[in-house]
Description:
alpha+beta; CATH 3.30.1330.40; 3 helices
Amino acid sequence: MTFEKKTVTAKDAPKGRGPFPQALRCGPMVFLSGQGPLSPATNAPIKGTFAEQARQTLRNVQAVLAAADLGLHDIVKATIYLQESSRIEEFNEIYREIMPEPWPARTLICAGLRGIEVEIDVIAMDRTAAELS
Length: 133
């Protein structure tokens, strides 16, 4: 079985700041590049609290998934990058509020992010496409 790689582009999400697509579909799997708290209109980091940055990042993830005809419930793996380990509990509260159960597998890493406080990349699965293959 061969799967073609197809770029996923969302009009309602930031374009990104490097040589990579917002997401890549390969068969039933969709791999999102890291999404941060960037404004879709300006492609620049939003000014705001940690909570506002976390919510904007999750909205950007949702927008890219929507461009692939998927939603948060289709995420099977999430990797979260936080600037500060002191924000883990605050992030978890926002995550519980927005992310539907059953929650995807997840890794949380504290990393030296540049100019933002949170970044998220995810892997999602299109169950309809998986059933057809």
